[in-house]
Recover the amino acids of this structure.
């Protein structure tokens, strides 16, 4: 029982640290909010729909791996749980990286006004925005 509580505490600590980036959460429950807040065009909405499906498929693989890992180590010793938590964290990190990658794709399609709105919201929430490098049109 102590090992399980320790493991959950460890996971909560890792999850809390991952909240520093200002993510849109493409593929989550808030796609409609993303559409409304950023006033996405039809093309952007289609991209959002496709990329949401992509991130869901990518992350479902890691969720299944994590479930299997947890099931496999239900009765493990604290020492083993420490090692398991590292592997579990790698799955969580991979899922977070997938979300960030897809968010970055969507942000790359934003107009300057949409991106400025995103930066303003991130600033208000004191979160680190995902920066998109755009080439400057010199004409």
């Amino acid at each position: 029982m102590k090992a399980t509580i320790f493991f959950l505490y460890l996971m909560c600590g890792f999850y809390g640290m991952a909240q520093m980036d200002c993510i849109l959460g493409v593929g989550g429950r808030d796609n409609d909010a993303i559409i409304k807040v950023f006033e996405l065009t039809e093309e952007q909405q289609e991209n959002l729909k496709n990329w949401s499906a992509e991130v869901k498929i990518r992350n479902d693989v890691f969720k299944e791996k994590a479930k299997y890992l947890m099931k496999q180590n239900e009765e493990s010793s604290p020492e083993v749980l420490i090692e398991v938590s590292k592997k579990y964290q790698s799955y969580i990190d991979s899922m977070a990286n997938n979300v960030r990658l897809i968010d970055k794709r969507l942000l790359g399609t934003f107009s300057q006004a949409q991106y400025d709105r995103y930066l303003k919201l991130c600033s208000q929430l004191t979160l680190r925005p995902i920066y998109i490098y755009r080439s400057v049109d010199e004409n």
Summary: Confidence is low (pLDDT under 50) at residues 1-10, 14-18.
